[in-house]
Amino acid sequence: xxxxxxxxxxxxxxxxxxxxxxxxxxxxxxxxxxxxxxxxxxxxxxxxxxxxxxxxxxxxxxxxxxxxxxxxxxxxxxxxxxxxxxxxxxxxxxxxxxxxxxxxxxxxxxxxxxxxxxxxxxxxxxxxxxxxxxxxxxxxxxxxxxxxxxxxxxxxxxxxxxxxxxxxxxxxxxxxxxxxxxxxxxxxxxxxxxxxxxxxxxxxxxxxxxx
Length: 211
Hints:
The protein contains ten helices and four strands, in the order βααβαβαβαααααα. With 211 residues, it is an alpha/beta fold. The protein folds into two domains: 141 residues, Rossmann fold, CATH 3.40.50; 54 residues, no CATH class. It has a four-stranded parallel β-sheet with strand order 2-1-3-4, with helices on both faces.
């Protein structure tokens, strides 16, 4: 049995304080899984790595030192993921990364960016930003992974620009928003999230049959 699950996530900036905010937000999002892991005496660690290159470096370094931990990488795909694509093949082609000793269970993506998970749950966005949040600029909230990355953040900024919190700011807002998301809604709308969630469930309970 796995004794520790360790997830290396792109984001949080270069500052420890903002990395803590991202870690807390994602840990709240994954709280049902975190609790299941703890019930089975499996440790949970989430590391916010900053840039995608720095995140991969930290992940790769940790893999060489791992002793029973199951390590996973979670980064932006920065573009559409071809149907049926092998994740490590995609990462090698896109970023030049390779991990020949690891399966695709160790590699996961925000498709096309982390904000796709945020826009999957417009009600969570409205609850955070208040009544002046305007969902209209955000296209395809039921298929957020089809929104090009270069359109996703501007759409979210436009949707939030008149709110009391001001327009969307990744470093300041993302952690708080992730903590508010409904995982069931995000999993339904973002296949990448469902894949990661299912992988973690299988690690916690290997006898569980995939849905």
